[in-house]
């Protein structure tokens, strides 16, 4: 299982941004292997961070090569004052069930593959 964490400082968002962002969000959610996402905002730094969860690296790569994602990367300076992306392999996940989380009910196998147990 993998995560892609996108952290950014926003400039002004316009209609073009929102339309492209919507296409990318739909593309992510319809990509086989997409497990979910969660977002955080830090009022003190002004940064937003979204963590996307994927069952395999190939699933993440499918989104990275989607035409809308490529277009957004080419235009990002219009809407972002800076960004950082971190790709990581998930080696474990657990919780008490008290909060909703994209990985709740997902079992990790020793191979690193995820299996939804929902």
Give the overall form: globular
Catalogue the unreliable spans: none
- Major β-sheet profile: 4 strands, antiparallel
Q: Determine Rg (CA atoms, Å).
A: 15 Å
Number of helices: 3
What is the topology, as strand order, of the major beta sheet? 2-3-1-4
What is the SS-derived class?
alpha+beta
pLDDT averaged residue by residue = 87
- Beta-strand percentage range: 35-45%
Number of strands: 6
* SSE sequence, one letter per element: EHEEHHEEE
Helix content: 25-40%
**Terminal residue distance:** 16 Å
Structure explained in plain terms:
This protein is an alpha+beta fold and 118 residues long. 31% of the residues lie in helices and 36% in strands. The strands form two sheets. The chain has a four-stranded antiparallel beta sheet. Strands 5-6 form a two-stranded antiparallel sheet. α1 runs antiparallel to α3. It starts with a strand and ends with a strand. The mean pLDDT is 87.
Annotation keywords:
118 residues; alpha+beta; two-stranded antiparallel ribbon; four-stranded antiparallel sheet; globular
Task: Present the secondary structure layout.
Blueprint lengths: L1 E9 L4 H16 L3 E9 L4 E8 L2 H8 L2 H13 E10 L16 E3 L5 E3 L2
Q: What can be said about this structure in brief?
A:
The protein has 118 residues and is α+β, with helices and mostly antiparallel strands.
